[in-house]
Structure formats: structure tokens, C-alpha cells
Design goal:
This protein is of the alpha+beta class. It is about 55% helix and about 15% strand. It has twelve helices and eleven strands.
Length: about 350
């Protein structure tokens, strides 16, 4: 029995449906109809309808007649379902076959003689992380700066992470405050927290990090994320986990939308913008550290200019320095009042 693929389905949806509907409306189509002639625009769609069994030729009247699609559907779908079941079973068998290899890899003090560090390049990073997540046994810690988390990346992460959570894996994820303004991030957070994950946000910049069962950590090796390092050295893993835990303690729960919390978050982002200005970072660098677009960061700077009645950044820096504004919320609360001339 023939198995039809995605290309056949796309052609069916784009061309065959309209031709079939015309045949149904007319009660059939003459075999010598110009639309069915060799080389005609509709001929490929007609050939596919014949192959699917959706039309048949009535020899007596020399007319192609439409067939009941309900009867034809099972002949098309059943082979696909059978093939899907076979592939699913085969993938499960392969996963079981790799089990002993994964266990041997974890037990080895210096896997493959390459030591406790594995370098991953380009397209190899995603599959490696997917494999690690799939074999997570107890805990998954992730730090994800907002920059670079596009809808496709989040959708792929959601599939991996929800599967891990369904197995009983504990999961904690850390974002920057800017993630709270992302609709796709909200959908991801809703999906994973519904299965027991915890998500928090932090004002300061941090790099991407994934910790699996506190035995291996994946971190970026370049700014453009084209090279990553998988770390298995226990002392380095413990150090990176401690960095995560300290950041986690300072972070705020993603789901907390109380007015006081949102006010505190806004103040933290304002304070960080001030620190970026004082330290003299370029706008693209400052925007990345805040996890926002350059345009949004420019808006933050414009708000500070209006707040301090400054026309230029130089004037803004001078006024903030004169008023003792340092980007520290505790100090700025006391020293941030306007000058009394």
C-alpha cells in the first residue's frame, strides 16, 4: 500500500481540493475535459486524485466520478499511522540500546581520554543539550538570559523540559527581569510551572548555563553562542552550581505580579541602567546586560534624562554625579533628590 508524504499532502491541499470540489459540484468531469489533458495545469492534481482513489472512471459514460472521501481517508491515514508506530517503537529500542553506553560514560572519570571538558560547536550544541535533558534523572538548573530566546528556541525547550518534568525531574530556571515582558516566555513558563518547575527573574546580567544532576554543566565559550563547553570536573561543577544558587536567592518569583514586586523590579532595572551609564558602556552592551533591545534601553535613558532635566548624556552624568546617584537603590533613595538651588 502506498505511503504518501508531506509533499503529496501539500500538493493535495493546494491543488487537489479545488479540483475535487469542482467534480463534486458538476457530478463528474468528462474524460476529454481540457483541464485533464496532458500538460494542463490541473493534470498533476488530477493524477494525484486518481492515485489516491478519490476519482474513478465510468467507462460507459467516459466520465471521471468523485468517490466518497471517508472511504479513501483510511487507506491513506492507516499506513501513515502504522509507519509512525513502527518508528516510535524503533526510536524506543534505540534509546534503550544507548542506555548502557550513557551509564559507562557517566562512570568514567575522564571520558574517552578527553578529560572533564567537551567542546561543542555550532549545530552539535542543540542535540547534545537535548540528549542531556533526556537523560536527566533528578534535577535540572538553567540560567537563560533573555537575549536569544526566540519563539522556536523556546518551543523546542518546552518540549524537552516538559518531558523531563513529566518523569519527575525537579527544575529551576532563572531569567532576567526583561523576560516578564515576553509573551512567548510567559507561555513557556506557564507550561513548565504547571508541571512543578520554578522560575525566577533577576535584574543583573548573567550568562547561559544548564546544570544536569549536578554532574555536568553546559556553558557558552563565545559571545555568539557558536561554541559551548560541557564541564564534568566536580569542583568546577560545584562552583557553578553555587553561582546559580546565590543568584537564585536574590531573584524574584516569575509568577509574582503584586504591585510592590513590580515596583521593585522597575527600580532594579532603573538602577542597573544608571550603573551602565556611569560605567560608560556602549548602548548595545548595556542593552544586552539588561536583556532588552537597544531601542528599549534608549527609552530607559530618555526617562532618566527627563527625570533629571538633562538634555544630553554628558549633562545627565554630571547631574547624577552631583546628586550622588550611583545606581544603588539604598543610597540613591537618600541622595537622589533634585538640587535645591
Amino acid at each position: 500500500m502506498a505511503v504518501f508524504g508531506p509533499e503529496d499532502r501539500a500538493a493535495f491541499e493546494e491543488h487537489c481540493v479545488a479540483l475535487y470540489e469542482d467534480m463534486v459540484a458538476a457530478g463528474g468531469m468528462a474524460a476529454d475535459d481540457p483541464r485533464l489533458a496532458e500538460g494542463a495545469d490541473d493534470r498533476p492534481a488530477f493524477d494525484l486524485l486518481v492515485q489516491l482513489g478519490l476519482v474513478s472512471l465510468d467507462a460507459d459514460s467516459a466520465t471521471w466520478l468523485p468517490e466518497d472521501p471517508a472511504a479513501v481517508q483510511s487507506r491513506v491515514v492507516t499506513p501513515l499511522s502504522t509507519e509512525a508506530g513502527r518508528l516510535l517503537e524503533e526510536s524506543s529500542q534505540w534509546a534503550r540500546a544507548f542506555g548502557p553506553l550513557r551509564q559507562a560514560w557517566r562512570r568514567a572519570p575522564e571520558t574517552g581520554g578527553r578529560g572533564p571538558f567537551t567542546y561543542l560547536r555550532g549545530a552539535a550544541i542543540g542535540p547534545y543539550i537535548g540528549g542531556l535533558t533526556a537523560e536527566t534523572e533528578s534535577e535540572l538548573l538553567t540560567a537563560q538570559p533573555q537575549t536569544g530566546r526566540d519563539p522556536q528556541t523556546l518551543a523546542e525547550a518546552a518540549l524537552r523540559d516538559t518531558a523531563a518534568l513529566a518523569r519527575g525531574v525537579r527544575m529551576r530556571t532563572l531569567y532576567q527581569h526583561s523576560a516578564r515582558r515576553s509573551a512567548v516566555t510567559h507561555k513557556y513558563v506557564a507550561a513548565v510551572t504547571g508541571l512543578g518547575a520554578e522560575v525566577r527573574t533577576l535584574d543583573e546580567f548573567f550568562n547561559r548555563m544548564i546544570v544536569v544532576d549536578r554532574r555536568v554543566v553546559v556553558i557558552p565559550a563565545t559571545d555568539d553562542n557558536t561554541l559551548a563547553i560541557a564541564v564534568r570536573e566536580p569542583s568546577v561543577v560545584a562552583y557553578l552550581v553555587d553561582v546559580f544558587e546565590r543568584a537564585w536567592e536574590r531573584a524574584r518569583p516569575f509568577g509574582n505580579r503584586e504591585s510592590t514586586t513590580m515596583k521593585d523590579i522597575a527600580e532594579e532595572q532603573r538602577a542597573m541602567t544608571i550603573r551602565m551609564l556611569i560605567e560608560g558602556h556602549a548602548d548595545p552592551v548595556s542593552a544586552k546586560r539588561l536583556g532588552v533591545s537597544p531601542r528599549t534601553y534608549a527609552g530607559y535613558v530618555a526617562d532618566l534624562k527627563a527625570e533629571h532635566d538633562a538634555d544630553t548624556r554628558f549633562q545627565l552624568g554630571y547631574l547624577m554625579g552631583r546628586r550622588g546617584v550611583q545606581g544603588d537603590r539604598a543610597l540613591d533613595g537618600e541622595a537622589g533628590a533634585p538640587d535645591q538651588e
